[in-house]
Amino acid sequence: MMEATSLSEQSLIEKLDNLPEHTTRDFELKLTKIAETLEETEYSQLLLYLENRIASQTANQILFASFVILTIYARRMKNISQFREIVERFGEKFIDFPLYPHILSLLYKEIGTNDAIEQAVAFAREATQNLPNQVGVLHNYAEAVVHIKEHGFMVSQEELQEAYTYINRVVHLSPRYAKFHCTRGRILAALGKFNEAKEAIRKAIDMEESSKKDYAIRINDYLYHLSRVQTNEFSQVFSDKIALTEKSFDEAKDEIDQSISKLKSENLQMLGFFTAIISFTIGSFNILGDKNFLESALLILILSGALVLAFVGFGLLFQTKNQHPWRTVIISLLSLGVIVGSMAAYYFIN
User: Fold this and answer.
1) Is the dihedral of CA 132, 137, 143, 144 positive or negative?
2) What does the alpha-carbon distance between residue 38 and residue 72 come to, in Å, rounded to a whole number?
3) 42-56, pLDDT tens digit by residue?
4) Which DSSP state fits 20?
């Protein structure tokens, strides 16, 4: 780890010259450790070193390491304008480094505009293609996907599942890195697994090292995401209850509509029944006026059968569901038999 008072040019070269290969996760971790202990004066010295060398030397691992330290420091201190300035001034010198799209993705994610967020995902995916086994790169892609989802962009279920697969792999390979657990919690929340999400973010809060200079910033981020998950969980529960209530209202409405329809049918049948009774009564008096008893009885039977048939037909016309079809058939046949029999008897009498 770099000492706070020994950031001379010679010590810088010695420390950065012995770093792991720049395509590995260890390279990023070593530089993160340096950035975490960097003071403002040391930051200025490192920036000056990069400015003095970048124009006269071909980009190499030492210069790239200096560039990455500066970006890590600015990002972790949430100084996004500083982060952007570093990339704009020196970034084009390092475009051939496989890790460079990863740096760009981190920058665009911090900028946070709609266009920048989409760019962050694109560069994160490019970085995973360059370095498919680098844990930090895989984590950044998973975080970029859930980040764009949280900002209201359309993210397919397949992309979320891919991000979930990546973050599970990352957590398995680096279980002691707190932020990885927070990102996993955010992805779990996006998948609707709120209890697991809250547990993962709380784990990140417990694991974060309080000795780090950016401890308060990182804890604040974790608490923000935890609050967001709890809010989304409440919204989901509330939406589910609304949907259930709407379904209950729809079912009740259907029942009421069926009841009203049935009541209308019954009322019409009763109206027809009373109309038939009145017609039957009036018709009976007219028939009995100039006929003998037997003829009057037969004619009344014919009228009665006809009224019963009319009433059955009226009921079938307005009935929404015929619950006793055989009973209707039997009554109709009996009524028809009464009519035919009475007409035959009346014919033979006369």
Assistant:
1) negative
2) 10
3) 888 889 889 988 887
4) P
Q: What is the rounded CA–CA span in Å between residue 155 and residue 137?
A: 20
- Under a CB-based contact definition with an 8 Å cutoff, are residues 43 and 69 in contact? no
List of residues 6+ apart from 51 with CB closer than 8 A: none
What is the band of 223 on the pLDDT scale with cuts at 50, 70, 90?
very high
Q: Measuring CA to CA, which residue among 217, 210, 216 is closest to residue 78?
A: 217
Whether 278 has a pLDDT exceeding 80, the answer reads: no
Distance CA 42, CA 207 (A): 28
Count CB-CB contacts under 10 A for residue 187: 24
Q: pLDDT digits over 103-120, tens only?
A: 999 999 999 898 999 999
Confidence of residue 6 (pLDDT cuts 50, 70, 90): very low
CA dihedral 285, 289, 292, 296 (to 10 degrees): -30
What's this model's pTM, rounded to 2 decimal places?
Answer: 0.66
Q: Are 96 and 111 in contact, with CB atoms under 8 Å apart?
A: no
Give the whole-angstrom CA distance, residue 66 versus residue 49: 8
Cα angle for residues 67, 181, 28 (degrees, 5° grid)? 20
Q: Where are the beta strands (DSSP E) in 29-100?
A: none
Say which residue the tokens 């995916």 belong to: 125
Asked whether the predicted pLDDT for residue 1 surpasses 60, the reply is: no
Query: What is the Cα–Cα distance from 183 to 344, expressed in whole angstroms?
Result: 93
Other beta carbons less than 10 A from residue 65's beta carbon: 23
Question: CA 23, CA 33: separation in Å to the nearest integer?
Answer: 17
For residues 46 and 81, the answer to whether their CB atoms sit within 8 Å is no
Task: Determine contact, residues 338/305, Cβ cutoff 8 Å.
Answer: yes
- Cα Rg for the chain, rounded, in angstroms? 43
